[in-house]
Amino acid sequence: MQAALDTALFYSKNRKMFSGRSLDLDGIQRMLGEVTADLGLSRLLYRKAAEALGTPEGPLMAAHAKRFLPDAAVKAANTCA
User: What is the spatial distance between Cα 70 and Cα 73, in angstroms, rounded to a whole number?
Assistant: First the structure.
């Protein structure tokens, strides 16, 4: 996800559209903002699930992370492509 976001940011900073950068367009900013939020949430879920290993909450937290992260990664790859 981070690599896809970095690539999309680099491209949109350097791509000229409508006499400006494509990064200056609200739609591009919104899409990349959603990817950034999903990336942060994914990292948080992953860390918290790892910290909870061996506790009663561990399996449930791991299941939540396992359910969210792949979908977020696919969404990020599609958005940034």
Answer: 5
